[in-house]
Amino acid sequence: MALSASAFVAPDARVGVKAPPALAAGRAAAPAPPGGSHAALAVCAAAAVAAGRARRTARREGPQVSKEKSPETQEEADSWGDKFVWEKAWYPLAVVEDLDDTRPTPLTLLGEDLVVWKDGEGQWRVFEDRCPHRSVPLSEGRVEKDGTLLCSYHGWRFNGEGKATEIPQAMKASKERLLENPRACAAARPAQVRLGVLWVWGESGPDAALESALLEPNLPTELEDPAMKDRATAGVWSHRDMPYGWEVAFENVTDPAHVAVAHHNIVSNRYEDPCPIKVDFVRKPSNKEGFSFRTTRVEQKKRSPDDDAVTTMDFRPPCQMQIRSLYPSGASLTLLINFVPTKPGFTKLIGSTMLIKGEKGETPKGFGMYNAPLPRWLMHVLGPVFLNQDAVFLHHQQNILEKEKRKHGKSWKESYWIPTEADKGTVTLRRWLDKNGGVGWSKAANTDIETTDKEQLFDTYKSHTCQCAACQRALKWTDRVNKTFKYSALACASAGLSAGSWPLLAGGAALGAGAHASAKLRRMFYEVPFHHQDEMDAEKDGFDSVNTRPKQAATKEPDKQTSESMKPVPPSGPKPTGSSSFSFWKNRLGWSKPKPEEAVK
């Protein structure tokens, strides 16, 4: 069968389709191949196949950006300033209220093991967790009555400055000389308590005291300004060990777009709230000062008091993000988020809030609960529900990035495709990290990222409860309440059955409900599992996964009216309000469930 020569003409040579310059130039410059028309047709066919593949690739991958990026100008490089030095900075290490002043506490910073203790002068001290004698952990030691830290291995003692005060094995003739030897000292770091948080300097050494005195910790000035004492209020401090690293933690908090989707049913509605976000830099990025940007939601109808606020996200190295919502009245609410780099793949979240009233005492609309006298432990026990909505992504994200790097040698630039303006904060954060050589881990740190299973991922007891004095007290109280409810319910039920008394049986049922609710509350001190697919376990409880409406049983031959009532509800419900949020927590704790609709007859 004869084929027309036009069938082999490259598609880009047809009318109205412009050939790529390289292909057109190659075709014009190539001489006629030996072998006559058959060879010419073969060349045309090969060109057509190549052009088709290129066009399909372009459609699939979108516009391609050349990998050969133009080199950064000296002016651009200079605008970032000197590199940030991780060791020469203040880090929040612990909430003082939850530290035990009768014993040393082991903590970790930048992969370096530290020990925190309170000396005889009432000062909190931070040493590197190593006895200079035989390199055993000082965190296994004891705080003695004379205010020294005793190493439990050989009995050496140290004062608050790290100087050895006792070496039991030393002869009297040489003891004084040995105690004065610098090698007998523990490695002490500068430390200070500000606003209820213990801050520690990033290194020890002869110059650490002087260098640390020249810098201030990253704290909002309003909270220590006497002129603002009637307007500025700090919330309770919370802390938690998070199963993901510094890099993805700060990617998450510089990403305003995820909130509308990931935090569905708590602060947003994933079906209605996502929209384009405009990002404008308020403070240009620099290595030492970080950066700040303002976010504006585009193409969104005003639906809540929050829409009046101007939100600014302020990254302050080495580990703080301040997210401030400023309202027309001059009132503002700021989230103070510190992700402390403990070891590769893990961080310690130390966070609080700051409320600033307007000049006339105005507070942000919808924040009446902020001043509610809620116990500290309750704030802590409810926190993981919000945090775990992110944790299920971030822990696995860092592992996927690590696998991509090992498998293909990919950097974040190749693993991510971040084309929207909403991603500007994440891109800038990654650029800042690249310019400063990544997180400044100690040379002793194990840089292998550990993979955590779901049971460990949601372990609230190890990540927080066992470290929090308020939550430990609340857990003991909850245990007692739960036992009281259970035993009282059994007693009432038994008495009611014996006497045939309906009031006693009803009382037993009520006490049983209390036992059930307190058991659920108790469980939240140990674990708060979360899966986005399960939508707060709504389906397991027999409720629609989107609207938390009761599921309706199907019938074999429903009438027309019943069929209409059983049509699926569109997945775009109203944005959660204060009342629906309260209902959510009631359901979470088992206090109540939505009333089922009338049964279909």
Could you please describe the fold and organization of this structure?
The chain has about 600 residues and is an alpha+beta fold. Among the domains are: about 1-45, no CATH class; about 90-215, 3-layer Sandwich (Rieske Iron-sulfur Protein); about 230-340 and about 355-465, Naphthalene 1,2-dioxygenase Alpha Subunit, Chain A, domain 1, CATH 3.90.380. The protein is about 35% helix and about 20% strand. The chain contains 16 helices and 19 strands. It has helices at about 20-30, 35-60, 75-80, 170-180, 210-215, 245-255, 260, 375-410, 410-415, 425-435, 455, 460-465, 470-500, 500-525, 560-565, 580-590, and strands spanning about 90-95, 105-110, 110-120, 125-130, 140-145, 150, 155-160, 165, 190, 190-195, 195-200, 230-235, 240, 275-285, 290-295, 310-315, 320-325, 330-345, 345-355. The strands form 4 sheets. Strands 12, 13, 14, 15, 16, 17, 18 and 19 form an 8-stranded antiparallel β-sheet that branches. A 4-stranded antiparallel β-sheet has the order 2-3-4-9, with no helix packed on it. It has a 4-stranded antiparallel β-sheet with strand order 5-6-7-8. β2 and β3 (about 110-120) form a beta hairpin. α6 (about 245-255) crosses α8 and α6 packs antiparallel against α10.
